[in-house]
Amino acid sequence: MLRYIKHNMSEIAGIEIYPIISLLIFVAFFAIVIWRTYRISKSETARFSQIPLDEDEKYLNDNEDNRKS
Amino acid sequence: MEVSRINYDNKIVKYFAYATITWGAIGMLVGLIAALQLAFPNFFNDYLGFKYLSFGRIRPLHTNAVIFAFVGNGIFTGVYYSMQRLLKTRMWSDKLSYINFWGWQLIILSAVITLPMGYTTSKEYAELEWPIDIAITLLWVVFGWNMFATILVRRVQHIYTAIWFYIATFVTVAVLHIFNSFELPVHFLKSYSWYAGVQDALVQWWYGHNAVAFFLTTPYLGLMYYFVPKAANRPIYSYKLSIIHFWALIFIYIWAGPHHLLYTSLPDWAQSLGVVFSIMLIAPSWGGMLNGLLTLRGAWDKVRDNVVLKFMVVALTAYGMATFEGPLLSLKSVNSISHFTDWTIAHVHVGGLGWNGMLTFGMLYFLFPRLFKRELYSKRLANAHFWIATLGIILWAVPMYWAGFSQGLMWQEFNPDGTLANPDFLETVNALEPFYIMRAFGGLIYIIGVLMMSYNLFKTAKMGSFSNNETVEVTNSRNQKIPKGEYWHRPIERKPVQLMILSIIVILIGGAVEIIPTLTVKSNIKTISQVKPLTPLELEGRDIYIREGCNNCHSQMVRPLRFETERYGEYSKAGEFVYDHPFLWGSKRTGPDLAREGGLRSDSWHYGHLLIPKQWSPGSIMPAYPWLAEDALNTSDLKTKIAVMRDLGVPYPEGYEEEAHKDLKKQANEIAGRIVKDLSQQKGSVKVETVSDKEIVAIIAYLQRLGTDIKAVPENDQEQEKSTELTEKTE
To answer: Which residues contact B145 (CB under 8 A, 6 or more apart)?
Structure first.
């Protein structure tokens, strides 16, 4: 099946470099994003991860020891 | 900062929670009935052989009910609860909230009515017919509109991770649903897919796989990011990881659809892309799982006492197992064993019962005490539910894994002389009977757990006090000053429109790269000159095949593997399906493949077999279809069907619909004649006239046509085709 694609694609000069370029772009982009995210300081994100806990409602305890007998 | 007193809408959350419980119990019960049909086929054939209850019709009802009714309502429950609190605002419009609720229940109800009646498109998890498809689209817009408007009027600046997942869910499900539902109506409850054969298969599994991704996974990950920290009362393990998790998951998931079509007639390059991205998918999936589990780091003692956390831990573990297994299953070597067997069924149930089920239960046990302002009626009962549910999952999954391995290996087994070790397909089915019984038992136990939960929550609700509105005081921090030098992702986290647009771009890349070339580049699907459109009678027969849901148990796809071609014949080519609107390749072989069925057996064999399967193939677990021989074939839509097919590109000559009826009668009489001739030797009571106008003749005509186009090639040509594919000409 692949040979039909290969046949059509072989018409384009220098086609072999395309998939390598695609792969490099993909990997580079991914690496940069991971690197930059890793560099974010924890103090910056700490308050955002607190958001779900930062509510005004009364917190009911699910613990066993609070159970009514 | 401005402080305001606002009301959260708790009533909508309660409504969706009740709907989740109710539909969950119903959907699972339908699944239990389907499981019992496979375990005790004779009982069902003898005592409960109603057409509305036959396996092919209720299997889609089970999948739709569990996915869209149980999990769907579960999503809305969690989203409506968490969004109001995360954004410190009531839902933007109560009217839209309740349209969302009642509309969704109506859609489910319409599925409950139409699917058993046989109104189906046959495309998995997209079986509902076109008017319901339109209703789903409108309803989804209502949901998205309400959600987005709520986000825009929020009282906080920052949008928490959970909501990114909700946004991605909204946009992607919309894209998937719309593109997979392109179909041309024949009448109010019948349509043909816009795409044919290979293209239809690719679009369907791009949809099907991402229904798993964006309906069963991303919204539930959003719920996980909210409810796990809430239940544990600690922040998520790593906020930074959640950034990577989110973008990597939604980008990579969308490419993986073709792994459902390995070794089929789908072009190889698309299959390879599907495999590569499926393997990569382990990383973000496990990133998400670890982020959830590690939230409990240093607080595992809480899990011992907190039933909500217990459910969530098992849910995350099941998620981890299912997302490790998924990439394994997409390896071609594993897939050649697993595909079409119960292994796939086991895999999805680890996800369904484990991940979605347990997370939903945990969420409900978390919500009810808060909504009804009292402790859970019985923690002991909830704990019992936890254990019984976990046991149910194990009892469900282990036998099905076993069944899957056994059957897959039995299909592949060869004798030393090169013949198939199990040439009779039924041998491989009958070997599974004990596993089917165990599986039904596992399902029963799991449902008992659900009933225990329903009772517990119902009692909690009854003894508690509920108010429709929960009043809270909130501070509006929306217009806080933005600090200089914020990190790169931070602007996206406070700009929902940007986040949505980026999400759309990210999810469109994979779909576009795979689908556009398959739809547009002709060389991907080579036409075969011998493949001709179905005759009118065969076309009607095909619609009965779809109505009865035969594709739920029978594939029409011979893979190019020796054990397949030895059993079924020549492997399937892309060009054979160019007129297949929709494609009917199937995804599970509870019965044998039918791609080469045509001409293998006599018409009278099919007649007898459809009426009493076990009499003609002893040990068969197929349901009997007596109504096919009783109900007259309705041909009133034949003209429209031919015209619609022609509009879709099937080359029926202009004006053929006028002659179609005559051709149909002629072919029906021929088939009926052969059946009567054969059967008269045995019974002598059937007449040609009483057989020829029945539905059974149409479906026999269709079955006898399957694969015959290829077989029609003269012997020497076929040899040539095998080696050079000469007959597949590129246009």
So the answer is: B96
DSSP letter at B54? S
Coil, helix or strand at residue B528 = strand
Residues B495-547 have pLDDT tens digits of 999 999 999 999 998 888 888 887 877 767 778 888 999 999 999 999 999 99
| Chain A residue whose CA is closest to B8 | A57
Cα gap B332→B343, rounded to integer Å: 15
pLDDT tens readout for residues B696-706:
999 999 999 99
- The reported pLDDT for the residue numbered B404 is 96
Kindly tell me if the per-residue pLDDT of B104 is higher than 70: yes
Residues facing B632 on adjacent strands: B694
- What's the token pair of residue B238? 């790593």
Residue B665 burial (10 A CB sphere; 0-12, 13-18, 19+): middle
Q: pLDDT at residue B725 above 50?
A: no
Min CA distance, B305 vs chain A (Å)? 5
Give the nearest partner residue to B379 out of A34, A37, A67, using CB atoms. A67
According to the 3-state scheme, what is the secondary structure of B458-485? Answer: HHHHHHCCCCCEEEEEEECCCCCCCCCC
Please report which helix (H) or strand (E) contains residue B274, including its range: helix B268-280
Test B376 with A57 for CB contact under 8 angstroms: no
Domains, chain B, ordered by start? 79-97+156-515 (1.20.210.10), 527-572+593-729 (1.10.760.10)
Using alpha carbons, select from B533, B513, B622, B620 the residue that is nearest to residue B576: B533
pLDDT single digits (tens) B318-328: 999 999 999 99
Residue contact B487–A67, C-beta within 8 A: no
Q: CA–CA separation, B570 vs B277, rounded Å? A: 30
The amino acid that residue B433 corresponds to is E
Asked if the C-beta of B243 comes within 8 angstroms of chain A's C-beta atoms, the answer is yes
Helix axes B342-349, B307-329, angle to 10 degrees: 150
- pTM of the entire structure? 0.92
Token couple for B579: 């007129």
Q: Is A69 on the interface with B (CB under 8 A)?
A: no
Contact (CB, 8 A) for B264 and B335: no
Q: For A3-49, what is each residue's pLDDT tens digit? A: 555 556 556 667 677 778 888 988 898 899 899 899 888 888 888 88
CA distance B591 to B524: 30
pLDDT tens digits for range B408-418 = 999 999 999 99
